[in-house]
TrEMBL record:
The lineage of its organism: Eukaryota, Fungi, Dikarya, Ascomycota, Pezizomycotina. Keywords: Copper, Disulfide bond, Glycoprotein, Lignin degradation, Metal-binding, Oxidoreductase, Signal. This is laccase. Residues 1-22 form the signal peptide. It is an enzyme of class 1 (oxidoreductase). It comes from Cercophora newfieldiana. One of its GO terms (biological process) is lignin catabolic process. Its EC number is 1.10.3.2. Its cofactor is Cu cation. It catalyses: 4 hydroquinone + O2 = 4 benzosemiquinone + 2 H2O. Residues 86-194, 204-359, 427-565 form the Plastocyanin-like domain. Belongs to the multicopper oxidase family.
Length: 602
């Protein structure tokens, strides 16, 4: 269903000859007709002319009003055993509508999206978060369990409804106790303009690490101290068993499974929407004989930049254009692991195939060369199309908020944590943060909820994030794009625990900060032993999370939350909408739940 053929429906007329996709439902064709005036294969920067929406529109300021609603129903099920797309049996699969990855949410820029979530999991609550979507004035639809809502109890359902104010590639995933590692995730595609022309939209390519064991059992071992996966290193993660491309790959251990294939049309330019939906593994992508023209980082369109390889951290997205300008044939598309500690798989050479239309059904023969090691760092040369700049002189370590993280072991209870500023977060499912806001008692929130600041409206906020660990962390902010003003350099050699990180030093690093239109996105890499300085402007009232997107680490507490424009929250959204779902949850948890919260809860 997510295979090679999701075509931007607006292309139906202009590229009828190249059309290989199933016809989209007529309702959605109708929805596209309402806006489709100028977005063609030779003018992708345009979206509509009257009113004018295009690649230069600041989507934080305005977006189209389409009057169209896209409705989805997601039923979550739990299977004690399930045969995955590599032909092998996984224990405890949790699936959306019975498939992995879950169905793609598709909409046009400016549409309303309604999603009804039905929880048919055996014992777990759930909540679905729409990663990267700004949720402007709709924080209550952010789907962060214990923060913006109570989890949805088993047998119960809940509907989220919000406007797609941005466009591009995102994804949804469960925000309940690392549950997405069992399979609760899927792509989001919001059709809109693009900063470079392409002929065919091949749709999302979700690349996921895949674990045959129950993620809950693996996480218990990652959190405990007695039996770490790497002897002597408490907190160390397991190797993934495989890496799946839109849910498919061969079985690296033997027979079974098959390669994912995308079809290329010779002479055409193809848009591929790459999403790293991993729990832990980060990869560097490359394709034999072809380069990638990057046109968006997360949901932010950028000046196109062409690369031969691309590092993608967990939660990150890249929209890339692949030009089918080579001989008709089959080409490997490879995910390579960095030498640094950003994950490893029992499949040493994860790959899929790009097959030119007309090529034989055989595997590629040219192996290609592995890309230069990106050391799990983001490139910093991405220039957003809509320029945003942070004030040059406003940051100093004393005016910003410093978030320090390091691995921490509590020997009395034999648990490993990732506290931020000494506190491993733990939310209260029965009393989500917005409930405290509704009741006017945020002052009494427990310290372990890790509420770090209460910025007012339209204030530049700076965070210095320091990482006293050998592991790079993909850090994600809900509800905002962050400006990445600076970071420590990639380290040339692997570091070992006990090495002292290079501290941020304002006198040395300050002049090098990039405040004029720096890279901007919603998920970025905190370098190993390093630091990162990010900024955002408060403009979106709500209770928002900032966390590491390695599922084990967020379960182990690597998260903070902050209340933005506190007094505007109750007037911007209807907090009474919390009540019915929380009543269902309170009736279930803890009295009727067989398992209790044993992690951060998010
Ligand atoms: C979408 O959800 C909103 C809010 O619950 C509701 O008012 C609206 O009727 C829904 N639209 C559709 C088409 O179901
Ligand atoms: C969630 O479900 C998994 C798999 O059944 C189980 O191991 C875990 O304990 C459950 N957690 C909660 C909090 O219900
Ligand atoms: C996904 O991100 C993780 C962690 O940042 C990284 O180890 C992995 O290689 C990425 N995967 C891909 C396919 O880019
Ligand atoms: C790409 O993947 C294929 C299949 O696993 C492998 O044979 C080839 O060596 C890989 N190439 C690179 C550069 O990793
Ligand atoms: C980093 O953590 C280690 C281990 O806890 C500690 O010995 C060291 O002093 C810390 N370094 C810094 C710069 O905080
Ligand atoms: C939690 C932690 O260890 N944080 C440290 C990170 O590094 C900075 C800069 O050296 C220290 O000041 C923090 O104590």
């Amino acid at each position: 269903m997510l295979s090679s053929c999701v075509i931007l429906w607006g292309l139906l007329l202009s590229t009828a000859a190249a059309l290989v996709a199933p016809q989209p439902p007529s309702e959605e064709v109708h929805g596209l007709e309402r806006r489709q005036t100028c977005n063609t294969a030779t003018n992708r920067q345009c979206w509509t002319t009257s009113p004018a929406f295009n690649i230069n529109t600041d989507y934080e300021a305005s977006w189209p009003t389409t009057g169209v609603t896209r409705s989805y129903t997601f039923t979550l099920t739990e299977l004690n055993t399930w045969t995955g797309g590599d032909g092998r049996t996984k224990t405890k699969a949790m699936l959306v509508n019975g498939v992995f990855p879950g169905p793609t949410i598709t909409a046009n820029w400016g549409d309303r999206i309604n999603i009804t979530i039905i929880n048919q999991l055996q014992t777990n609550g759930t909540s679905i978060h729409y990663h990267g979507l700004r949720q402007f004035n709709t924080n209550i639809m952010d789907g962060a369990g214990g923060v913006t809502e109570c989890p949805i109890a088993p047998t119960k359902s809940k509907t989220h409804s919000f406007i797609a104010t941005q466009y591009g590639t995102a994804w949804y995933h469960s925000h309940f106790s690392g549950q997405y590692g069992n399979g609760v995730l899927g792509p989001i595609v919001i059709n809109g303009p693009a900063s470079a022309n392409y002929d065919i939209d091949l749709g999302p390519l979700a690349i996921s690490d895949w674990y045959l064991g129950s993620i809950n059992q693996l996480a218990a071992r990652v959190m405990g101290t007695s039996n770490p996966f790497i002897p002597g290193f408490p907190g160390s993660p397991p190797n993934s068993d495989n890496v799946l491309f839109n849910g498919k790959n061969i079985n690296p251990a033997g027979a079974g499974g098959s390669y994912q294939k995308f079809t290329l049309t010779s002479g055409k330019k193809h848009l591929v929407r790459i999403i790293n939906t991993s729990v832990h593994n980060a990869f560097t992508l490359s394709m034999v004989g072809h380069s990638f023209q990057i046109i968006a980082t997360d949901l932010v369109p950028i000046t196109p930049v062409t690369v031969n390889s691309l590092f993608v951290g967990v939660g990150q997205r890249y929209d890339v254009i692949i030009n089918a300008n080579q001989a008709v044939g089959n080409y490997w598309f490879n995910a390579s692991f960095s030498a640094g500690p950003c994950g490893i798989s029992n499949n040493a050479r994860p790959a899929m195939i790009f097959q030119y239309s007309g090529a034989p059904n055989t595997n590629p023969t040219t192996p290609g060369t592995a890309p230069t090691d990106a050391r799990c760092q983001d490139a910093m040369n991405y220039v957003p199309i809509v320029a945003k700049s942070a004030p040059t002189s406003s940051y100093s370590p004393s005016t910003g908020t410093t978030l320090n993280t390091k691995l921490s072991i509590d020997n009395t209870i034999a648990r490993v944590f990732w506290p931020v500023n000494g506190v491993p977060m733990k939310v209260n499912w029965n009393n989500p943060t917005l409930e405290y806001v509704k009741n006017g008692n945020v002052g009494s929130m427990p310290a372990n909820e890790n509420v770090i600041s209460v910025p007012t409206a339209n204030v530049w906020t700076f965070w210095l994030i320091q990482n006293n660990s050998s592991i790079p962390h993909p850090v994600h902010l809900h509800g905002h794009d962050i400006l990445i003003l600076g970071g420590s350099p990639a380290l040339a050699t692997p570091q070992i625990p006990g090495n002292v990180m290079r501290p941020y030093n304002h006198a040395v690093d300050g002049p090098n900060l990039r405040t004029t239109n720096p890279p901007r996105r919603d998920t970025t890499m905190l370098p190993a032993w390093g630091w990162l300085l990010v900024a955002y402007k408060t403009s979106n009232p709500g209770a928002w999370l900032f966390h590491c997107h390695i599922a084990w680490h967020v379960s182990q507490g690597f998260s903070v939350q902050f209340l933005e424009q506190l007094s505007a929250i109750p007037t911007t959204m209807n907090l009474n909408e919390l009540t019915a779902n929380c009543n269902n949850w309170d009736a279930y948890y803890p009295a009727n739940a067989p398992f209790l919260q044993d992690d951060s809860g998010i």
